[in-house]
Design brief:
It is built from 4 helices and 14 strands. The protein is mainly β. Strand 12 and strand 13 form a beta hairpin. Helix 2 runs antiparallel to helix 4. The N and C termini lie far apart (36 Å).
């Protein structure tokens, strides 16, 4: 793993066979990009997005400015870190929008099915925008905010924090003190320098942060594995350099299922990523 560009290493794929309509790629996801022993769902989403983009750009270099605008993923299995294989099928290739299906497999078992929509993200100011709780959050974490590292209570599980800078807004994370609170967790995340400097990697990293928070069920006293079944993530804007502000919320936590939404702002205050996932409520011990 590169300490300067660990996410670029995770999302760099080797093309094995590429045609205008389909392709196959090989990749490797380092153990950094795991939650507990299994590969992080947002990292797998980003790898699928990378494969889809590479499929289009390799066969049409004039499309080099496109990015994954929407990635909709169904998780069929939880792979271990290590080698993965990806196959892509182009469903539509257009001037403004292209659609690519992606499968990510490990040892012959399909782990992820993804539908990726590619195009050019917005670059102008929005005509309308509804403020979120992130508007009052500092652009960068205060000096006293602890990094998710070392003795931090999340560090032994959230291994992805080793591949980026991560700070939790303690005022939103009631579970860290054993209390219960609102179904909202806020945090700051920033890629390492090499990943931030490469715009394509920075985009993929931003997409990954659409699944970066601990499950908000923890703030309601429900701990344990909360497996994501389906996740859809939108890229709204290319991220500017600097810290990303993330808010994860849920409006309905049922007896079996809950939804979790992420909103991600960059250092300029622009909304760069929005996501929604359907996940399973952790089982009671």
């Amino acid at each position: 793993m590169s300490s300067v560009s660990p996410f670029k290493a995770a999302t760099t794929l080797t093309a094995l066979d590429v045609t205008a309509d389909s392709a196959s790629f090989a990749g490797a996801i380092d153990s950094t990009w795991t939650i507990g022993p299994k590969v992080h769902g947002g990292a797998m989403l980003a790898v699928c997005a990378a494969a889809a983009r590479q499929q289009i750009v390799r066969t049409d270099p004039e499309q080099s400015e496109i990015q994954p605008l929407a990635v909709s993923v169904s998780y069929l299995a939880a792979p271990d870190p290590g080698e993965v294989a990806l196959t892509t099928v182009v469903r539509k290739r257009g001037r403004q929008v292209s659609h690519v299906d992606v499968e990510l497999t490990q040892a012959g078992r399909v782990a992820v099915r993804a539908v990726v929509t590619l195009g050019r993200p917005d670059s102008d100011e929005p005509h309308h925008e509804t403020p979120t709780s992130l508007a009052s959050m500092a652009t960068s974490p205060p000096a006293e905010t602890l990094a998710v590292a070392g003795d931090h209570p999340m560090a032994s599980i959230v291994h992805v924090a080793k591949g980026c800078e991560m700070r939790i807004d303690a005022s939103s994370a009631s579970f860290l003190t054993g209390a219960t609170g609102e179904a909202e967790i806020r945090l700051w995340v920033r890629p390492f320098a090499g990943d931030e400097a490469d715009i394509d990697t920075a985009v993929l990293f931003a997409l990954m942060t659409g699944d970066i928070s601990a499950p908000v069920t923890m703030n309601r006293g429900m701990f344990g594995w909360a497996p994501t079944v389906q996740l859809t993530t939108y890229l709204r804007h290319r991220p500017a350099p600097g810290w990303l502000r993330v808010a994860a919320t849920s409006s309905v936590i049922g007896s079996t299922w809950f939804e979790e939404d992420h909103v991600v702002l960059d250092s300029t205050g622009a909304v760069v990523v929005q996501s929604r996932q359907l996940a399973m409520v952790p089982r009671s011990n």
